[in-house]
Amino acid sequence: MNLTLKKLTECSIEDTITAWNRGFEGYFVKLEMTPEQFFNRLVNEELSLEHSIVAFDGKEPVAIVLNGFRVIDGKKTAWNGGTGIATEYRGKGVSKQLMEAAFSVYSKEGVEVATLEAIKENERAIRLYQSFGYEIINSLVYLNGTVELKDTLIPYTSIRPEQLPTFSFYKENVPWQCQWQSVKSGEAQIYFDEYQNPLGYSLFKRVWNQQGQLERVLLYQLEVLVESKIELIKSIFRTIPEENQKPLNFMTINASLSNLVIPILQDLGFEKTTEQVQMVKKIN
Fold it and tell me: Quick check: 116 and 66 in contact, CB under 8 A?
């Protein structure tokens, strides 16, 4: 199929949003966005207009791939922030054309590591990425649960997300959306024992409703540096709101299934809503 590929910088807002919303029609999770939501996402996740691509069939936008770049663990790393293809164009080689275009961009940009996440059930997409040399390195999970905030506070310090890399225990190489650069509008806390030894840290966003009440907490990272115990996790959850209040909803975002906190959250009644695979390709 002979499609025309354009950078997002060459496309109108209308065509870009049409390509995105058509590309993710009938997807495993609802990804439809307004122009405001779409461009907020571009900014928050540092996705590149210059290096992202829309595919056109004539004048009709039919597919999209978003790309972002960061230096992670000293290596220039690319993230595929979404590859979407309009329903009637799926299975016709369009995804292969988009991936080839993306890797042409990566080559010009000197990318050393290419990363992405895919919904676990999206077997066709996973096979496509594997055919381009991506390997599954991790399973990621969204967990959702409500916690009674009755435990005692533990010693902690609140910091800005951009301060996290100054701590030696901060994990830099996590899924793109969980890196501090994607959560600049969020908050972070470091937890300590009574001797000021670090116990762990969190990176999160608090979400308020229109009445100004804290409604839920989105957890982008929750790392414990000592043996994970349910009492410690419950104390951390008590600390995050910084105030007494009714039971509060927490959701993990792309948490690694290998994180020792996960079974504790499941013991607390958290339920899995979505599971993804994290995929990586090393580029010579």
Answer: no
What local confidence, expressed as pLDDT, does residue 27 receive?
A: 81
- C-alpha 68/C-alpha 166 separation (Å) is 23
CA atoms within 13 A on the CB side of 235: 18
Residue 135, beta-bridge partner list: 280
Cα gap 104→97, rounded to integer Å = 11
3-state secondary structure 225-277: CCCCCHHHHHHHHHHCCCCCCCCEEEEECCEECCCCHHHHHHHCCCEEEEEEE
Cα 145 to Cα 33: distance, rounded to the nearest angstrom:
26
State residue 212 phi and psi, 5-degree precision.
80, 15
pLDDT at 62: 97
What would the pLDDT profile of 98-143 be if each residue is shown by its tens digit?
Answer: 999 999 999 999 999 999 999 999 999 999 999 999 999 999 999 9
CA distance 252 to 271: 10
Domains of the chain with bracketed CATH: 4-111 (3.40.630.30), 142-277 (3.40.630.30)
pTM of the model: 0.92
